Amino acid sequence: MQTSGYLFVLCAAALWALIGPLSKQVIALGVAPLEAAFWRSAIGWCFFAVHALATGAWRLERKDAPAIASFGIIGISTLFGAYILSISMVGAALASVLLYTAPAWVAVLAWLTLGEQMHAHKLIALVMTLAGVACVSLGPAIVSGQGLGAVNLPGILLGLLSGFSYATYYIFGKRYLGRYATPTLFLYALPVGCLGLLPFVTFTPKSGDAWLFLALLAATTTYGAYSVYYAGLRRLSATRTAIVATLEPVLAAGLAYVWWDERFDLMGYAGSALILAAVLCTILGSSRKAGSEAAAG
């Protein structure tokens, strides 16, 4: 059971790592970033709709509709839009690292909305994350002597926004993923996400290749990734699941290097290591605390 759980989550991390390469390919074929995000949501919804209807997992309690709609705007519109714009501005490798500032946002949001305590290990991890982001995003310009004027600030801010919106998956998941199947949640959240993106999208004629890569983007990084991730979550503890999922930015950076020769300098690699170390510090610190409380009980 645990072996299959690890394989599911590893598969999800690998599928999410394809967001950067596939998005860059779609953009290179003439599709604007926000239109690509729209079609990633819309085509992904088609897969989830078929799944939900085929399994009978389409019922949603009316009282949960506002929360699911909010998730559609924050977790779908904002995440999909901000992340693909960040990729187009700063590259897939840096965008994936900025996305994984999410654990720091989770610590703050859980403290504010769920009443979770801000323990020392969380504060340390938060500082490590911010230091890592500074190294990755500001370090190259400073080291090269170009100054902060060379920093692509909009791209970095959009990457951080994608990390924040990704963190809300934890907050919504805490309340709703235990009550609804994955297809049910995305059956209703994805259309709202599409509507949130719609005012910012300009539709253009697309080639057959563009449609093919859009379909691949939706099938792999939306339907496939979310489906196998939650399949893994049912078989593993949240801690183990989160640890395996942090392989995504490493895989994304590797793919960006292989496909486009995107690479970090020494400061970039140091910053990436700090961010990943902060993620592990947060996860393992929480795990040790839970273990101590269980032993005391």
Question: What are the main properties of this structure?
Answer:
single chain, 13 helices, 297 residues, mainly alpha
**What's the quaternary structure here?**
single chain
Please tell me what the overall shape is: globular
Contiguous helical run count: 13
Query: Mean pLDDT across all residues, rounded?
Result: 82
Count the strands?
0
Structural class designation = mainly alpha
Element order: H for helix, E for strand: HHHHHHHHHHHHH
Rounded Rg: 19 Å
Low-confidence stretches: none
- Strand content bin: under 5%
Termini, distance in Å? 28 Å
The portion of residues assigned to helices is: over 70%
| Main beta-sheet annotation | none
**Count of discrete domains:** 1
Could you characterize what this model shows?
The structure is a single chain. With about 300 residues, the protein is mainly α. It has one domain. Helix content is about 80%, strand content about 0%. The chain is built from 13 helices and no strands. Helix 1 runs antiparallel to helix 10 (about 210-235), helix 1 packs parallel to helix 11 (about 240-245) and helix 3 runs antiparallel to helix 4. It is globular.
